[in-house]
Amino acid sequence: MATGRVPVERRRRRPTKTGTVLTEELIVDCALRLAGEHGAEALSVRRLGAALGCDPSALYRYFHDTDDLLLAVADRIIGETMHDFAPEGDWLSGLREMAHRVYSGYSRHPRIAAMAAYRVTRRAHEFRAVEIGIGLMRRGGFGKEAAVRHYAAFIDTVLGHAALDAAHLALAPERRGGDTRAWTEAYQDLPDAAYPQLAEVRHELPLMAHSSFENALDLLLSALESQARAG
């Protein structure tokens, strides 16, 4: 089935078996809930139809396929993160707040973040987010090309950390705990002769168990500030 937005004339609002009127917003709500409970495999027309109390084929009046639905879900997450965000004043402060909003937004949906973070939704919330991000870069004094390149580096760094940390949160507790303990157990028992550099920083290695998002953000914003001053 071809991808892309479903024409408005096909989105006829009809009640489900339970009497609920089916809408694009209701389907996205359901998809977010199911993905949060069961992971990516929940985004199937069969499971969505069962959860919504409708014939699975009815979903095709709103979305061309499950990938089209995934893009709508990703755009919903962007909309949640950017709600009421209208940065004024210092451009670096605006970028920092934007980064925290994006990171927190995907952290709230860890089971779907890894699938959604790298997609281009081509929808209204994403358009607005990119508009704001490019605007902040321009406010920092960057030219057109530099603003686009630097924004790409900024948002990819933020999304990459958001997806990585969200994927870790989505792990089963015992696996997540095993990964965390590795830095206080397995790495502490390595022989000094074979791993001299690790031996020197042995007591600092537990820091590796924590997210590097804040440190990466500080480094990135410092680099952008230096570029702006030089430019």
Automatic annotation (TrEMBL):
InterPro entries: Homeodomain-like_sf (IPR009057), HTH-type_TetR-like_transc_reg (IPR050109), HTH_TetR (IPR001647), Repressor_TetR_C (IPR004111), Tet_transcr_reg_TetR-rel_C_sf (IPR036271). It comes from the Bacteria. Keywords: DNA-binding, Transcription, Transcription regulation. Residues 21-81 form the HTH tetR-type domain. The keyword Transcription applies. It comes from Streptomyces polyasparticus. This is TetR/AcrR family transcriptional regulator. Coiled coil: none annotated. Residues 44-63 bind DNA.
